[in-house]
Amino acid sequence: MPLTRTKVIVRHDLLADPRAAAAEFRATLAARGTLVVNLISSPGAGKTSLLEATAKHWGNQYRLGVLVGDIATDRDAQRLAPLVPVAQLTTGGACHLEFSLVAEGLRQLDPGELDFLFIENVGNLVCPASHDLGEHVRVVLLSTTEGDDKPGKYPKAFRTSHALVINKTDLLPYLPFSVERAAADARLIQPLLAVVGASALHGDGIDRWTQYLEQQRQLLLPSTEAPIP
Amino acid sequence: MHEASIAKRLLAQVLRLAEEHAAVSVETVSVRIGEFAGIESTLLASAFGQLTATTIAAGAELDIQLVPLTVRCTRCQREFAPERFRFQCENCPGANVEIVAGEELVLDNVILAQATEADACR
């Protein structure tokens, strides 16, 4: 069969559609006064522990919700369930969350109005960095046992984050980890990064971490709602 | 490894174009991938090859052009390629830099094979 060849010019950014959907979600949640926080880290850095500590610290002060991403099991969701409304997002093998899963999870959670919505990403410092989940704040956790040389090894995770929580500071006396070195390495990649040291297990630094979140939420609210100094 | 889901999105768009243009096969798919897009081109090509196997895009060549990471200093406006992902302007220590290229995944064009008009009418 005689064939003709046609070159079709497209020039379409394939990442544009999911980005636009995430941006719309971000604007909607901002208007409702919900700060959306995307927590990324390698496995075992303490994302769930940090959320437990956060929920315990605040008690009933704020309306919280958590979406937990995992490849298998609902262990993290079970840990958090006694403290905070939680919905499990099982990715079925995918190494990261995508926006479509978040939108679905929020429907499951059906939270009404929230002050803070936390998304606990799948433990991985690579792929989650490439996916906008509609968050206002991306937080990367780095635990002291991982080593202070990690920011430069995972540049995208640190470049795209707004804050770095250095977790497990209680182990610092036993490890060759320098908080200053890790923070300096991360700030070569992202000069605007806020850095907070914490021990989610023992509670050190949780006051500074929660203050950071409160400040970020204040930035969403109309100025009339801001506290009078 | 998230290249499989990206390949799926790419293929969906290619097949949509092929259908719109009543193509009988897809010969070439040209994409531009930013160095900092977080997409490994070898893995993308392999996933794309596997996904196309049962479609009219089977055997299509995936032509990948890599786009270097380019940033601009927000203070002095200088544009440069950061070495080893160090987002630092050498003239303005501590200043932020914004990414101007290198994060994209652009489907540039596709080359489609169509039956000639006389054949298509039969």
Kindly report the name of the CATH homologous superfamily of chain A: P-loop containing nucleotide triphosphate hydrolases
Given helix and strand content, the structural type of chain B is: alpha+beta
Radius of gyration of chain A: 19 Å
Question: What name does CATH use for the topology of chain A?
Answer: Rossmann fold
Q: Which CATH top level class of chain A fits? A: Alpha Beta
| Helical content of chain A (DSSP H or I, runs of 4+) | 25-40%
| The CATH architecture of chain B | 2-Layer Sandwich
Span of the ends, CA to CA of chain A:
79 Å
Side by side, the strands of the main sheet of chain B go 2-1-6
Total beta-strand segments of chain B: 6
**DSSP strand tally of chain A:** 8
Percent strand of chain B equals 25-35%
CATH topology name of chain B:
hypothetical protein PF0899 fold
What does the average pLDDT of chain B come to?
92
How many domains in all of chain B? Answer: 1
Q: Greatest interface and its residue counts?
A: A-B, 33 and 42 residues
